[in-house]
Amino acid sequence: MSELPDCFYCRKDQRLHDLMIEIAPLGVSTLYLFKEQTHPGRCVVAYRGHVNEFFELPEAELTLYSRDVARAARAIKTAFAPSKIN
Ligand SMILES: [Zn+2]
Fold first, then answer.
1. Residues forming a β-bridge with 46
2. Cα 40 to middle of ligand 1, angstroms
3. pTM of full prediction above 0.85
4. What is the mean pLDDT of each run of 10 residues along the chain (86 residues)?
5. Which of 7, 36, 49, 80 is most exposed, with the fewest beta carbons within 10 Å of its own?
6. How far apart are CA 23 and CA 16, in angstroms?
7. Which DSSP category does 65 fall into?
8. What are the DSSP calls for 17-42, one per residue?
9. CA of 83 to the centre of ligand 1 (A)
């Protein structure tokens, strides 16, 4: 897993900051909240390295990433009280 020059998650450049607000670094990822909140709590848990699909992660990283996603989901549940989290 390496960084890609055109990926705004890897670059953390203005394109990213135009769309999202960094909420917190997690274990192997960063939680971002979309500025556009048609769906309250819409966010992304961006893995620290570049992968196209989460299932491409090695098993150990997949476990750590899953923990981050669960932690983010709990926070979203607390903050936004959604009826369902996708
Ligand atoms: Zn990337």
1. 30
2. 25
3. yes
4. 81 95 96 95 94 92 97 94 89
5. 36
6. 13
7. H
8. HHHEEEEEE-SSEEEEEES--SSTT-
9. 31
